[in-house]
Backbone:
């Protein structure tokens, strides 16, 4: 998900998103349904033929609507692409947003959060992989917002890793390198992952989670 190694900033949260430029402002049940129709049709086209080879005219034809219908909700295809990409970014990078009074051990939060990041990447196929395949598409404003989300995630993860190491649950050396290595595992999926492949989505999540625990140096506690 465009993971960055820059110094963490303060949390951005789900609402701190890149400013949209679409003409439709007031969200209602009806407008949400129509927006989803557009997004789903566009996602299939972007996944099948890439951003550059997808036009607004093709999206319009796939929906069997008029161009003004699509432009009522989105300014252009870049805004559609960014909207599709933002959802998995938020779900991935808020995977450690636990309640402040969550009493669990650091290792349990880490395992829950990293598995959540991996699951969000798989669940949001194909949109979660757009940022890996075509990073040049995004506006600077979008990239800045995505980076802020990533910083938010690592601002939480790195202290948890160090706490779990002090607890004797993890064995690693460099905190940030370890964090980045473990969380980058789902990134390579974009080149081969298929929801209908040999392994089910749940099995893919389980396999990648086990690999992440190895990167983190998980120590199995005795019974």
Residues:
């Amino acid at each position: 998900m465009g993971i960055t190694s820059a110094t963490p900033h303060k949390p951005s949260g789900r609402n701190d998103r890149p400013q949209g430029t679409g003409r439709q402002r007031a969200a209602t049940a009806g407008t949400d349904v129509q927006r989803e129709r557009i997004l789903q049709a566009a996602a299939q086209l972007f996944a099948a033929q890439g951003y550059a080879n997808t036009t607004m005219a093709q999206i319009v034809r796939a929906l069997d609507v008029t161009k003004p219908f699509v432009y009522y909700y989105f300014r252009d295809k870049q805004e559609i692409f960014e909207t599709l990409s933002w959802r998995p970014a938020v779900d991935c990078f808020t995977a450690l947003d636990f309640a402040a009074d969550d009493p669990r051990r650091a290792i349990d939060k880490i395992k829950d959060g990293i598995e959540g990041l991996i699951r969000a990447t798989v669940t949001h196929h194909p949109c979660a992989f757009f940022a890996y395949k075509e990073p040049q598409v995004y506006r600077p404003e979008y990239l800045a917002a995505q980076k802020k989300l990533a910083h938010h995630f690592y601002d939480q993860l790195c202290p948890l890793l160090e706490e779990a190491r002090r607890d004797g649950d993890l064995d690693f050396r460099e905190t940030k390198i370890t964090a980045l290595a473990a969380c980058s595992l789902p990134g390579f999926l974009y080149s081969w992952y298929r929801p209908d492949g040999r392994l089910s989505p749940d099995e893919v999540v389980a396999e990648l989670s086990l690999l992440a625990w190895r990167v983190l140096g998980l120590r199995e506690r005795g019974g």
In short: Residues 2-13, 21-25 have pLDDT under 50 and may be disordered. DSSP finds nine helices and no strands in the chain.
